[in-house]
């Protein structure tokens, strides 16, 4: 994951959080689940730090948005039981895999708003690196 991709993800989070007038915590992890970037806005809850990390790790490792993981757990009790044995899995909305050139390169997790707000900001982050820039090329 390049610095430019990290910056694009963080910029998208900042823009959407400002638009929604929210204090959030953003965590970006690589494919190994290791933190590559973390931004915590002043006034954001202490609990958002770990929640954003878990959402990012879940999205990166399972290659699914964290809310989809939560929905799957609700549909399949045996799967939910297996999730319960691993405290690193979060089914809360706000985590998205980061896809670059058709490959998952990490994950982003957002915490600090309500579920819908976290999910909207996370989706904006994932879309920021999936779309071409104004000159037609993708973020490098």
In a few lines, what is going on in this structure?
With 140 residues, the chain is α+β, with helices and mostly antiparallel strands.
Description:
It is a single chain. By secondary structure, this protein is α+β, with helices and mostly antiparallel strands. It has 5 helices and 4 strands, in the order H-E-E-H-H-H-E-E-H. It has a 4-stranded antiparallel beta sheet. A hairpin with a 4-residue loop joins strand 1 and strand 2 (35-40). Helix 1 packs antiparallel against helix 5 (115-130) and helix 3 crosses helix 4 (77-84). The longest helix has 18 residues, at 3-20. The protein is globular, with a radius of gyration of 14 Å. The mean pLDDT is 92.
Q: With helices defined by DSSP (H or I, 4 residues minimum), what is the helix count?
A: 5
Q: Biggest sheet, strands in spatial order?
A: 2-1-4-3
Number of strands: 4
Mean pLDDT: 92
Tell me the distance between the termini: 10 Å
Shape: globular
Biggest pleated-sheet summary: 4 strands, antiparallel
Which stretches are low in confidence, meaning pLDDT under 50 for 5 or more residues running?
none
- Give the helix level as a range of percent: 40-55%
Gyration radius (Cα, Å) is 14 Å
Structural class: alpha+beta
Strand portion, in percent?
15-25%
- Provide the succession of SSEs: HEEHHHEEH
């Amino acid at each position: 994951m390049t610095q430019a991709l990290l910056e694009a993800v963080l910029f998208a989070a900042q823009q959407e959080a400002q638009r929604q007038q929210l204090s959030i915590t953003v965590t970006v992890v690589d494919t190994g689940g290791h933190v590559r970037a973390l931004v915590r806005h002043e006034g954001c809850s202490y609990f958002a730090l770990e929640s954003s990390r878990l959402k990012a790790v879940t999205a990166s490792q399972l290659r699914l948005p964290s809310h989809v993981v939560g929905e799957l757990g609700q549909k399949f009790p045996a799967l939910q039981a297996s999730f319960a044995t691993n405290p690193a899995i979060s089914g809360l909305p706000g985590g998205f895999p980061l896809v670059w050139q058709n490959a998952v390169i990490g994950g982003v997790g957002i915490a600090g708003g309500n579920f819908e707000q976290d999910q909207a900001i996370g989706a904006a982050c994932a879309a920021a690196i999936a779309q071409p820039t104004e000159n037609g090329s993708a973020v490098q």
